[in-house]
Design goal:
Length: about 1000
């Protein structure tokens, strides 16, 4: 453990002790405020009427007052009040029927009934909240407890398998790296298809600020948020739910609400400690041939190539692995096997410590959270750590006026790894691509060759530090009953520092005599919003209206420097280099918006909702700066009709439908529509001395406009047998037009491309979510949640095909899905000759580009997750499986490691090669001549990447109340979490791995990228 990490742990322990001491004083103050008049003390317990289990976080309010509290883990509550008995309590909680209880004295025992289909649940929507009963849009709700278990840095990875229609792929086993997230498919080619993330009203930047090249991998800005501070998450999916966010709602919206205290409640201190380790799943790691096997294959490849082309002069006599006395490297059977993979793998430690205080008085509430996370990767060197402070505060100035603030300060540190494509300074590739017969060390004990695994493990110095603030302040006033005005100002500021030094032991440092890179990037986004909302009961109907406006600005600046040529590796500051270069960038965009929504329901039976948003962006041309995004939705609760109202077995039946338009501007330059000039274009005067000048850089397009996505959604909600079984089904169609792409133009214009609106794209799919309470006994319960989704992506219009990544494995072509594979189809290996036989080849075995076809894509046909939760007395067990089916992946490990046995490590698959007439195999005869191994885009490397994964296993035990009372604790739970414990897949590697973070080049698997780790963690959660 390095000194920095040790200091952070000591600091964290100091925070926790300070919290505990502070909580004691705050608890005393909250329980007995100076001068308070206490006329009665009421205690009681609240349990579930069906299971008889105590209920935590149930709100107990004295009717007609602001005096309220919440139950603890054991279902117990206590109120000190100036009210005299008798008085009425209002007992409420999400998922239970609100109940009024007359209190005449203590103790009080209350039983709550689960609300049918939890229709009273409060769900966060755009600029407000609604009850689940009144929802017209398609919204998935994720419990906060489900996003703080898996040992990954960012919370988005933990949503996998928990929300229907949300596809999540963890492409890498490096903590803190970007995650692939799609809500109802990919809606854009060049612009971002990532959802909009909002934390407590703050619009987050989720675009990586990384500038250092790390083989196509990028970091995740969402890793700056501590999952332990999250209270709940809503995923807005259809246009009715997202259109109020206009230009930012095309890809779905993820609303994160963090924890807050409760008014009139004592201080509650919670401490959570979690520690364990991660390790590799050996089934996902490439199998290499042994040293003797690799040498045998290298000889065979050498000799066969010489036979096929005598001009190469490769014969048995000069084969590489022959006796040393003959000038060779020794016979194959004399070679040793060196296992670098086992040396770079290790048990990476995982630590996560969190402490919080929350509570409140009659007019204020607060939440203070402190967190420290430290994660090592399953391979040596890469680490991620985060320290954060979260503070939320709300204050009622009067019955009509209140204000509040939310603050999150974080420091995220990454010891980076080059994990992706490219052999240079690639940690994982150095171990998985090296020949197994090559010695780890020379005879003098030094490492063999630049970028050897052991050199990199000892000489890697690439790190980043992100200092980030996410927060805001609001004020709210009730002008008159039902009419509220709210104003807020929010800020997301990130100071991102990158530094890398490559010493002379690495290939980069060797070529430059030592090289240092440093970049300081600052990104700030502020947004100011005003909303006016009105809610009115009109007899048996209800009307709600919200209107508002917002202003947003984003500024991004970066300054970088490179130094080459250092006296020695003890001097690492760029100022010590003999050659230095520097660059600076600055960019800005602004957005002005007006929006509104009207929702009406009659008799809680018929629902109508309409929203509209107008966005004006500085990114677009003067002729199309504004975009307009309407949406409307309808709902019909058939259960409330006379012919179904008395059907006991039917708890809820509701039909929903919506249509709307959302926009997209992400992914294009801030000045994409403008004609630009650049400085630094020198020219010579009459004496030949360069003078500064300017030159055209970009062709403008004043007609550039928004991408727009129109979406239609039809949904059904069905609940049976008093909420024992709940079913939600949605079918949708999304159609994106005016794709933002760089269109080629004749070079005679002086430019090669310009930004334009060309192309159309569609997504069609379905979502099914089923939850059931299988058993609900006094001591034992069993609940199941299953979600399944499918999406079909299609490029409807595209002027010309676009290939992605190196070697053009992936193609974007009209009539096909994005991330499709453009390959030559190997039909079989000729059992007589051992030659690959391709579809479309001529009599001589030659193939042309016209013979390439599209074979599948990286998107699954079906994906989702299934969770089973069991409780027995004080024990609980949770099991989560995630799955995808129908997706393909080009296995780049096989591509690179099957082609040339003399160039490094050899995939064990090559041992199945054709060797003699009559052999039946799909691995052709070894040779460097012909099509067997020289066609890069060979379908032989395309594999089925479907999988079923045991993603999460949780076992917990809550200490009984009899023990807690003796040690003065409200709650104590010990638990175990296992992650990625088992994988079932035909894919030879990790089916979720991907060589790049490029969203348009998914399905290029395994190469250079460590797989997801298996994790084992033990934790304890204590509440005082």
């Amino acid at each position: 453990m390095n000194a920095l990490r040790f200091d952070c742990i000591l600091t964290m322990k100091g925070w926790i002790m300070s919290l505990l001491l502070t909580s004691v004083s705050m608890t005393v103050f909250a329980q007995a405020p100076p001068g308070a008049v206490v006329n009665s003390v009421l205690e009681g317990d609240i349990i579930d009427s069906l299971s008889r289990r105590p209920l935590e976080s149930i709100t107990v309010n004295i009717k007609g007052t602001t005096n309220q509290t919440q139950t603890d883990k054991q279902g117990h509550f206590k109120i000190r009040t100036g009210q005299r008995f008798p008085y009425t309590l209002i007992v409420s909680s999400i998922g239970y029927r609100t109940q009024e209880v007359e209190a005449t004295g203590a103790p009080l025992n209350i039983q709550l009934r689960s609300s049918e289909t939890q229709l009273s649940d409060v769900v966060v929507v755009g600029y407000g909240t609604q009850t689940k009963r009144n929802l017209v849009g398609s919204i998935a709700v994720v419990n906060a407890a489900e996003v703080n278990k898996i040992p990954v840095a960012s919370f988005d990875a933990q949503l996998q398998g928990k929300a229907a229609g949300v596809q999540i792929v963890t492409n890498s086993g490096i903590p803190g790296e970007a995650i692939f997230v799609r809500v109802r498919g990919t809606t854009s080619i060049n612009s971002s298809s990532d959802p909009l993330y909002i934390v407590d009203g703050v619009f987050l930047n989720n675009t990586s600020l990384q500038t250092l090249s790390l083989g196509g991998r990028t970091t995740s800005p969402l890793a700056d948020i501590n999952p332990s501070d999250i209270d709940h998450i809503e995923v807005l999916k259809d246009a009715s739910a997202t259109a109020i966010y206009g230009s930012r709602g095309a890809n779905g919206v993820v609303i994160i609400t963090t924890k807050k205290g409760n008014y009139n409640s004592r201080s509650k201190v919670t401490v959570d400690a979690l520690a364990g380790w991660v390790q590799a799943d050996k089934s996902t790691i490439q199998k290499l041939a042994s040293g003797p096997q690799s040498a045998t294959l290298a000889n065979e490849w050498w000799i066969n190539s010489g036979i096929d082309n005598p001009a190469l002069n490769r014969t048995f006599a000069n084969r590489p692995f022959r006796p040393v006395s003959e000038g060779g490297q020794g016979l194959p059977e004399e070679q040793k096997t060196y296992d670098r993979i086992s040396d770079i793998l290790h048990h990476g430690t995982v630590q996560n410590y969190n402490a919080s205080i929350q509570g409140g008085s009659n007019n204020s509430r607060y939440y203070l959270g402190l967190g420290y996370t430290d994660q090592e990767a399953l391979i040596r060197v890469p680490t991620f750590s985060r320290e954060n402070v979260k503070f939320n505060f709300d204050q009622k100035l009067s019955n009509r006026i209140s204000f509040g603030l939310t603050n999150n300060f974080s420091r995220s540190y990454r010891n980076q790894a080059f994990a992706g494509d490219g052999p240079q300074v690639n940690l994982w590739n150095s171990a998985t691509s090296a020949a197994t017969y090559t010695s780890k060390y020379a005879t003098d004990g030094t490492s063999v060759g630049a970028d050897n695994t052991y050199i990199l493990m000892q000489h890697y110095d690439v790190n980043t530090v992100s200092l980030r603030y996410i927060g805001g302040i609001y004020a709210e006033a009730e002008i008159w009953k039902g009419l509220k005005f709210r104003s807020s100002f929010n800020l997301d500021y990130d100071h991102y520092s990158e530094y890398a030094y490559w010493d002379r032991y690495t290939s980069i440092g060797l070529a430059a005599n030592g090289q240092a890179n440093s970049t300081l990037t600052q990104n700030s986004t502020w947004i100011n919003e005003q909303t006016l909302s009105y809610v009115k009961e009109l007899g048996s109907s209800n009307l709600s209206v919200v209107i508002g406006n917002s202003e947003q600005s984003n500024v991004l600046s970066a300054t970088s420097a490179v130094g080459k040529g250092f006296a020695n590796d003890n001097f690492r500051l760029i100022s010590s280099a003999s050659q230095t270069t520097a660059s600076q960038n600055w960019t800005k965009y602004s957005l002005a918006s007006f929006f509104g929504r009207v929702a009406y329901n009659y008799a809680a039976k018929y629902y109508a909702e309409a929203s509209f948003r107008a966005d004006g962006s500085s990114k677009f041309g003067a002729n199309n700066r504004w975009g307009y995004f309407p949406a409307f939705g309808l709902g019909w609760r058939l259960k409330e009709e006379a012919f179904l109202k008395d059907v006991d077995w039917l708890s809820e039946l509701k039909l929903r439908g919506s249509y709307g338009i959302t926009g997209n501007q992400a992914g294009i330059d801030n000045f994409a529509a403008r004609g630009l000039w650049t400085g630094g274009s020198g020219y010579a005067d009459v004496f030949g001395t360069p003078l500064s000048g300017i030159a055209p850089q970009q062709l403008g397009n004043p007609d550039l406009k928004w991408e727009k996505t129109a979406q239609t959604d039809i949904g059904l909600n069905l609940d049976l047998f008093k909420n024992r079984i709940s079913l939600t089904v949605d079918v949708y169609r999304k159609y994106t037009s005016g794709l933002l792409l760089q269109r080629p133009i004749p070079g005679a214009t002086g430019f090669s491309t310009y930004w334009a609106n060309v192309g159309e794209l569609s997504n069609e799919g379905y979502e099914v979510n089923i939850t059931s309470t299988n058993i609900a006994g006094k001591d034992f319960s069993w609940r199941t949640s299953l979600n399944i989704a499918g999406n079909r992506n299609k490029i409807e219009k595209l002027p010309s095909q676009i290939t992605q990544y190196t070697r053009d494995w992936v193609i974007l072509k009209q009539g096909y899905s994005m991330n499709s594979f453009w390959l030559y189809h190997q039909l079989y290996v000729d059992p007589k000759t051992g030659a690959s036989v391709f579809e479309g080849q001529d009599a001589n075995g030659a193939v042309t580009t016209d013979d390439r076809r599209i074979y599948g894509n990286a998107y699954p046909k079906i994906y989702g997750g299934i969770t089973n939760t069991f409780t027995y007395k004080d024990f609980d067990l949770g099991i989560l499986f995630t799955f995808q089916s129908g997706n393909k992946s080009v296995n780049l490990n096989r591509y690179f490691r099957e082609r040339n046995p003399s160039s490094g490590g050899v995939n064990a698959k090559v041992l199945q090669r054709w060797q003699k007439p009559g052999d039946i195999t799909d691995v052709p005869r070894l040779t460097s001549i012909g099509n067997n191994y020289t066609i890069d885009q060979n379908s032989r490397y395309l594999e089925d990447a479907s999988f079923l994964r045991l993603k999460e296993l949780t076992i917990g035990y809550n200490l009984p109340k009899s023990i807690l009372s003796r040690i003065n604790l409200t709650n104590a739970r010990i638990y175990f979490i296992g992650t990625n414990l088992k994988l079932w897949s035909k894919y030879t590697g990790d089916p979720e791995s991907n060589v790049t973070s490029n969203p348009n080049a998914q399905g290029l698997g395994s190469f250079g990228t460590p797989p997801q780790p298996v994790g084992y963690q033990f934790g304890i959660n204590v509440t005082i």
